[in-house]
From TrEMBL, chain A:
Transmembrane regions: 12-38, 58-80, 101-122, 155-176, 196-217
Protein known as: Succinate dehydrogenase
Sorted UniProt keywords: Membrane, Transmembrane, Transmembrane helix
Gene3D superfamilies: Fumarate reductase/succinate dehydrogenase, transmembrane subunit
Claim: Zinc is one of the keywords in the record: no
One of the record's GO cellular component terms: membrane
Automatic annotation (TrEMBL), chain B:
Native source organism of the sequence: Flagellimonas aquimarina
Cofactor: FAD
Protein name, entry field: succinate dehydrogenase
Annotated GO biological process: anaerobic respiration
Uppermost EC category: oxidoreductase
Compartment list: Cell membrane
Catalyzed reactions per annotation: a quinone + succinate = fumarate + a quinol
Annotated active site: R338
FAD-dependent oxidoreductase 2 FAD-binding domain: residues covered: 36-470
Enzyme Commission number(s) from the entry: 1.3.5.1
Topological type in the membrane: Peripheral membrane protein
UniProtKB/TrEMBL annotation, chain C:
Organism annotation: Flagellimonas aquimarina
Gene Ontology terms, MF aspect: 2 iron, 2 sulfur cluster binding; electron transfer activity
Transmembrane annotation, as ranges: none
Similarity annotation: Belongs to the succinate dehydrogenase/fumarate reductase iron-sulfur protein family.
Name by which UniProt lists this protein: Succinate dehydrogenase/fumarate reductase iron-sulfur subunit
Domain of life: Bacteria
Amino acid sequence: MSGLIKSSIARKVVMALSGLFLVTFLVLHVTINLASVISPEFFNEASHFMGYNPLVQYLMQPILIAGVIVHFVMGFVLELQNRAARDINYSKFKGSANSSWVSRNMIYSGLVILAFLGLHFYDFWIHEMTYKYIEMNPEDPTRYYAETVEKFAPFWRTVIYVVSFVLLSLHLWHGFASSFQSMGVNNKYTPTIKTFTKIFAVVVPLAFAFIALYHHLNPITH
Amino acid sequence: MGILDSKEPQGPLANKWTQHKNEIDLVNPANKRNIDIIIVGTGLAGGSAAATLAELGYNVKTFCYQDSPRRAHSIAAQGGVNAAKNYQGDGDSVYRLFYDTVKGGDYRSRESNVYRLAEVSSNIIDQCVAQGVPFAREYGGLLDNRSFGGVLVSRTFYAKGQTGQQLLLGAYGAMNRQIQRGKIKSYTRHEMLDLVLVEGKARGIIARDLVSGEIERHSAHAVVLATGGYGNLFFLSTYAMGANVMAAWRAHRRGAFFANPCFTQIHPTCIPVSGEHQSKLTLMSESLRNDGRIWVPKRKEDAIAIREGKLKPVQLSEEERDYYLERRYPAFGNLVPRDVASRAAKERCDAGFGVNKTGEAVFLDFASAIMRYGKEKALTSGMKEPDDNTIRELGEKIVEAKYGNLFQMYEKIVDANPYKTPMMIYPAVHYTMGGLWVDYNLQTTIPGCYAAGEANFSDHGANRLGASALMQGLADGYFVLPYTIGDYLSDDIRTGAIPTDSPEFDAAEKDVRDRMEKLMSGTGIHSVDYYHKKLGKIMWNKCGMSRNEKELKEAIKEIAELRKDFWENVKIPGSPDSKNQELEKAGRVADFLELGELFAKDALERNESCGGHFREEYQTPEGEALRDDENFKFVSAWEYMGEPSAAKLHKENLVYENIKLKTRSYK
Amino acid sequence: MKLHLKIWRQKDASTKGQMVDYTLDGVESDMSFLEMLDILNEELISKGEEPIEFDHDCREGICGTCSLQINGRPHGPDTMITVCQLHMRSFNDGDEIVIEPWRAKAFPVIKDLIVDRSAFDRIQQAGGYISVNTSGRPVDANTIPIKKHIADTAMDAATCIGCGACVAACKNASAMLFTSAKVSQFALLPQGQVEAPERVQNMVRQMDLEGFGNCTNTGACEIECPKGISLENIARMNREYLSATVKG
């Protein structure tokens, strides 16, 4: 088993598994976010549950953070190896002839998403942590909706979010189906997986972007 | 028997090999560890021999000029490998395979060798399947067979159109296993430049590292040459660009007799030459002749019009076409053996009926096969009165399923769609039956120097049947040489390692260095290719598909002159102390320039027509080959005496106890 | 036609190389790409310059020796062929053609356009075979029936010619397609399944040691492979590797 993490294939499997894990998280995330558009009350309830349920806070949250870290650290390691594998570059390299732009530039879409995560953590996670554990504020199950909508008031933040969702879409466009290939799944279901990937890669980021824009355009009027 | 002792075992034909194996000496496993063997060439024969000898315990060194053993030209064999398995239950047997091979070779091969080949053939298939060679299979899961030219049974095993590749990769895998075990040391991008004899025995080679240019000495207790054929003598051939005769020729110069040099196979279905720039010819599998009909226009005006592009072949009606093979050989039609089909194409083109711009091509037409298959398909799918277009479409699909990859290859090279317009083909040099003379043990006339596969002369007589080259290469390497070499090496168990600092090695290395220096000192303006192309033209025009005394004599003179010019003038840039492809080529062409002359001399001496050797003076009134069993039922084995012109002929008389000699007829 | 060629020249492994410009006139459309280079070389020799060295041998698309990156693509603009099968009719008068060697750390340049692909041999030596003795007497070839589609799929994987186009095309210079072709061939056949777990582990270990990159599943290798080896083989190798490693 020790060889597992050292080999190129195992590393790719780690990428695939952590990626798929993050994909499932995205589903959860987008579902709850959509609630903010439909029902502020439900959104508040769900957010409060997530924020104070010990299982979510002390088990799922660390796993999620670990998943993100593993995915991007492994991504960097692989990228460095891949760069080292071609020590002298071609003076002319026509990748467009045989592969998609997104598949060749996962590192860039990934980096943008990572940078976005920095902002996103600052916006929400740090805020939450400060609110709950540093300032030790009392529980308030009704604050989430307003806080969220307020975040999208500045135009610049909304733009950054929307652009990042476009990059997320590109990342998923290749990454989702690719993770199955990395884990050795390439069979009669592969075309279905690929089609599903494309739908997923468009629908989920579109939903995120829609939510951001919606809240930007519909500020809470006091 | 004189100087040539074939060492054929006595006794009934069917028992010879078994009996021989029982009687020869063996080397015990502990002693094998003290014995080194050099194998030059890593194709089917060399690769399989290396793997097997290493597995037996010998220390093996392999040499190949390619960057990997996997690239030897055995890889290009398309059709298949014969074996007397009789899986089809169509009456095949060891005897029948033996008989077909001897007859196909026009009775110029040694009975006992060919019988052994047929005997071990079925073992090859077992072996290769165990190695994971993915032969074609039927729906029931058992191995499939196809039938090949000139025989009445289906005994050819195949892996798509890449049988040679799969068998070679099998042998390469077996080699790799031994390399991993440390029993084979593989020297790639290395070329053997000379054979070293110590006390009359082959004890090593001088090789050049083609990357660094370094000259190296390698010693061993025996040397196996499995370096393939010498068809590149003709410049244009279906051989790999690097294929050469150097190893065999160096051995010849050191005392190994060269047998039947003039026996060359010219394959009828190759893509024609398109211009002066051409470097290489591409074979279209013989299997195409099952469905393609070969023709030229009946009228010369039409041929000229086609050549000039004023007329399209499809515009000619059936009556305006000359299906000359069907006309001349009604019984076999388009499926006559290779030598016959090739000569007939040349005859038509020489008479002015050639159909490409150089006038050296005939048509191979699938139109009637497409319509025939299409009709059949329409019938079986229950169509009522389908129109011609529908039939053609259906037929094209069937032809595509059978020959799709070949049609695609043709289209890529020629840029014409063979489904819509007939293919153009012309014969090309494809295989050489001649090679180093070997006895029953595959030993040359130099003790300790063996030759296997196409490099030896042994099994195909004057013409090789389709799918037999692969069979012979693997039989020699997997099943013959590993036994017979032990008989010789059993005397060497106390010899110890052969030193490489002996005077013999010094002298051989000096020869090699002098020769290279001389090559590099040319003062003229022409490159190696210039001379090679000139030699090729002489060979093709005067020693090609048909030969006559006058032209052979001219060829001998011209080649000798060309050789002289070459040695004085050839221009080789760069230095010998680094990678230098021009120098590599020059060394090879230098040897071709000697062999070419011997080739012509051999053809001149053989006053008969047999197999691939057609002498215009010896033909029937209908233009068929006229063999002379009374005077030429022998193997010509040439001894090197300085210049090719001085080479001395030794004859090994061929004895046929189990086969009655007949005239081949395909009418 | 007249062509402007930009060709990588490098004296030997230890010397730095650079792109050099050549202009070649009189190229005909029915020449093969390598014949075009032959003509250029003849010109160079007649001018007393050293010809451009490139690897080639069978010139019929099966030996896997030829290995040129042409205008940014392995084996040039056409698909399902090797350089030796590429013809000049794929180019136009006045075209600029950039010719480079395969680029990978595991394929160091030997001279000009020639690279050292012995890493491929070492991957095969690590396990690309079935450990049966060639001198032994195996069972009859028809003892184990194999389903036709299994044999055909194994054959499709086995058609790999080891040219290295997959590595050359891959943005990561990964050798996964090459390695997986052999792993697949033997994993599919009953004869090869006996030692399949050891084989895949040994071959992958060697592949990694040689310094090839990882697989990003871009699919470039599959498109550029002159024999059309499928990405399914990579998935199969991943499967085989995982199951071999998990089972220990």
